[in-house]
Amino acid sequence: MADHTVTVESTLEALLVEKKYSTIRDILSTMNPADIASVFDGLEESRLPLLFRLLPKELAAETFVEMEPDAQELLIRGFSDSELREVLGTYAYHAYWSDINYFLKGWWGKYIKKFPGVIYDMSEWCELPVTMSNKSTRSALFMARVMAQDMFISNASIWSAWVAVSEGDEYGDGLIIANHDCSEFYVAQRYYAMAHFSKFVPEGSRLISCTKDVNDRFSSRSREKLESYMSFRTNTAAFLTPDGKIVLVIVNGGEEHTFSLNGIEGRDRLKTYTTDGNRKVELTYDGEYRQTLTIPAYSITTAIFE
Question: What is the pTM of this model?
Fold first, then answer.
C-alpha cells in the first residue's frame, strides 16, 4: 500500500486553488506564530501575500516577527503601501543625523499627515556624535530643541532617548552617567530637558496647534558635507492633556524673549518651570493666568495652563 504524506503546506496550497479562504483562516488561527512563519518560509512568493492577508491582524504582526528576513522581504514586495499600513499599524523611526535639518523634519511631518490613522514613533535618538559636555546647559537645549521639533514639526507620537544610563565621562550619551558598576553616577543636563516633556505631558495627551510670529531663523553650514541648514532659536510644542490642561514647552536658544499669548481660553491658572544655567526644572511662577511670558535666555520653560 502506498504512503501518502499530507503537509500543512500542501493542504493550504490545495485550499488556495479551491479559494476556500475561510477554511484557510480557520486553520491558520489554530497555529502559533512560529509554526505559521515556518510554513510561510517555504511558500512560493506569489502565494505569500494572499495567505498573510488572511491572518487576523494581531496574529499577522506576531507571525511577521517570526519570519526569516528573506521571507519578510518577499512579503513586503508583494504588499502595497496601504496594505502594509493595515498590518503594521505603528511605524517606528530614528531621528539620528537630522538634528539641525528643519526642512527634512518638516517634509517628514507633512508626509505623515497623509495617513492620519497610522501612529509614528520616534523610538531612538541620542546626540551623535556627542560634541557637547553632558554637564552643560547647551546639551540640554540641544536635546530639547530636537524633541520639540520631532514632535511638533515631524508629528512623532512618542519620543524616546536611546539609553537612560550610560557608562562614560562627560561626553557620554545617556541621561544618567555612571561608572561600570553604577556605584558612582551623576545626572546629565539632558535629563532635565526630557523632564520638561515627560514630567508634564502624560500618556494620552495630544499635540495641538501652536504658532509663533518671532522671526528668529538662523542658518548653519557643514563645510565637510557642503550643506546648509535652517532652524529657529526658539522652538515650541503644545499639548492638551487628558485632564484638560494645556502644556506649552518653549526652548529658547537665544536671548531673553517675551511672548504674548493668544488663543488660550478658559484657563485662570498658570505655572511655569524653568531649566537654565542656574535652575533645573524649577517652579518659577504659580499664580493667575498671564497673557505674556518672559522666557530667560538659553533656557527651557514649560508653561501649564489650568
Answer: 0.72
Pairing of strands 206-208, 234-240: antiparallel
Query: Each residue of 170-206: pLDDT tens digit?
Result: 998 899 999 999 999 999 999 999 999 999 999 999 9
Q: Comparing C-alpha atoms, which of 170, 162, 189, 166 is closest to residue 178?
A: 166
For cell 558612582, the residue is 184
List the 119-125 sheet strands across, edge first.
90-94, 119-125, 158-161
pLDDT digits (tens, 9 = 90+) for 48-83: 888 888 888 788 888 988 988 888 887 877 776 665
Give CA angle at 283 (282, 286), nearest 5°. 170
State the CB neighbour count (10 A cutoff) for residue 289.
Answer: 13
Rg of the chain over all Cα atoms, to the nearest angstrom: 25
Rounded Cα–Cα distance for residues 243 and 264 (Å): 16
Q: What is the pLDDT of residue 1?
A: 42
- pLDDT one-digit tens code per residue, 137-162: 999 999 999 999 999 888 898 899 98
Of 253, 254, 144, 264, whose CA–CA distance to 196 is shortest?
144
Give the N- to C-terminal CA distance of the chain in Å, as an integer: 83
Contact by Cβ (8 Å): 136, 148: no
